[in-house]
Specification:
Bound molecules: flavin mononucleotide, iron/sulfur cluster
Strand content: 15-25%
CATH topology of the largest domain: Rossmann fold
CATH architecture of the largest domain: 3-Layer(aba) Sandwich
Strand order of the largest sheet: 2-1-4-6-7
Number of domains: 2
Largest sheet: 5 strands, parallel
Distance between the termini: 38 Å
Helix content: 25-40%
Length: 263
């Protein structure tokens, strides 16, 4: 038995997790769902599919790795999706598991279009990355079936830690991405942002979204909004910076809310 735990804002990680799930016969579980209702995981094979945030793991994925209760697990792998550079992401997974006396057996990266607004992939690269996804993930799936071991290759660099910390600080404190602003003239009250928010921190009130605390900086609300009505601090996805995975629907990633989000 196998389970793949994923975290996603704009669908890249869901798409990769879904492809791997089909290939390995694994059940998909949203990391935010697990954190809302933790339980003992008894599967022999565990996968984690995560985006890269500022050269590192998203905080919520790190929290999951610290808390997930594993029993009988013999093989753990991680796949990171990113626009260009994964930095210390895979090493960080290995480090957290090592502290818990668990072993990350294998790690892989899958480059996919960048959803971060700041570094858009560009139309040509976007098409190229999406076209390569199936083959890349299939190849990873084949290696996973053979229980590939490659984690000795994962190293940390002091510089990555600094770049990761400064990058995340800039996103939160300089670009102020946790502060959302709604353009009520553009918002039609469709509720998509509230459905897809993995933090569950968006509620619809009087036909418009209201943002509570607990944002996981996935950029999903602004990217999925069909009317470009959401500003993430100083960032506003529009035109070339707008991106969601074309093979993923709102329904695929709806309702994976954390339950402890403060309103
Ligand atoms: C807050 C934030 C920070 C990001 N930082 C990086 C980064 O350091 N390196 C990179 O290559 N991509 C970065 N990205 C891009 C995402 O890792 C990439 O688009 C990922 O595939 C998104 O996955 P998702 O669609 O499942 O949310 C960042 C995205 C966000 C939202
Ligand atoms: S997704 Fe956009 S248009 Fe729909 S409710 Fe949210 S802000 Fe309004
Ligand atoms: S509020 Fe935060 S966690 Fe929720 S969808 Fe928007 S960026 Fe993601």
């Amino acid at each position: 038995m196998a389970k793949i735990f994923y975290f996603t804002g704009t669908g890249n990680c869901y798409s990769v997790a879904n492809r791997l799930g089909e290939k390995l016969g694994a059940e998909l579980v949203a990391i935010t769902d697990y954190l809302s209702h933790p339980y003992i995981v008894e599967d022999a094979v565990i996968g984690i599919v995560t985006p890269v945030y500022s050269m590192d793991l998203p905080q919520v994925v790190a929290e999951f790795l610290e808390k997930v209760q594993l029993q009988e697990t013999r093989y753990i792998f991680c796949v990171a999706t990113m626009g260009a550079l994964a930095g210390r992401t895979l090493y960080h997974v290995k480090e957290i598991l090592h502290k818990r006396k668990l072993i990350l057996s294998a790690g892989f990266t899958v480059p996919l279009p960048d959803n971060s607004i700041i570094f858009p992939s560009g139309e040509k690269r976007m098409q190229m990355l999406l076209a390569a996804e199936e083959e890349t993930v299939n190849n990873i799936g084949e290696l996973l079936k053979e229980h590939e071991e490659n984690s000795v290759k994962m190293k940390d660099f002091f510089l990555w830690k600094i770049v990761a910390a400064v990058g995340m600080w800039s996103l939160k404190s300089v670009l102020n991405v946790k502060h959302k602003k709604i353009n009520k003239d553009k918002c039609n009250g469709c509720g998509i942002c509230a459905k897809i928010c993995p933090a569950g921190c968006i509620t619809m009130e009087k036909g418009h979204p209201v943002f509570g605390e607990g944002c996981l900086t996935c950029f999903g609300c602004a990217q999925w909004c069909p009317n470009e009505a959401i500003n993430l601090g100083w960032l506003h996805p529009t035109g070339k910076t707008k991106y969601v995975h074309p093979g993923v629907d709102v329904q695929d990633i709806s309702g994976r809310h954390m339950l402890d989000c403060k309103k």
